[in-house]
Amino acid sequence: MIELFSADTPNGKKISIMLEEISFKYKVTTIRLRSKEGDFSKGEQFNPEFRRISPFSKIPVIIDHDNNKEAVFESGAILIYLGEKSNKFYEQKDRTKINQWLMAQ
Questions:
Q1: pLDDT at position 34 over 80
Q2: The pTM is what?
Q3: I need a labelling partner for 5 at 20 to 30 A (CA). Which of 20, 25, 64, 96 fits?
């Protein structure tokens, strides 16, 4: 099972979409992000526990509980990981083009 740590942001949503498209079982853990106004009642991305899986304090992050609790951060890296794991949307012959678009995001 994949655990997705995310928030209501475009980068977070793209991982949910990928998980739905590849039909993987997953659970979402919502991370309350600090607002631009500096609301310190939120800001869970800066907690030491979260920084252990996301060194740059950014969402999204996944933990693959079926793969030794492997943590993967950065949306492009997560999409590559899920594409390789599922053998969907990441054909070997197209990887250079796919990677260019993932890095451009």
A1: no
A2: 0.89
A3: 96
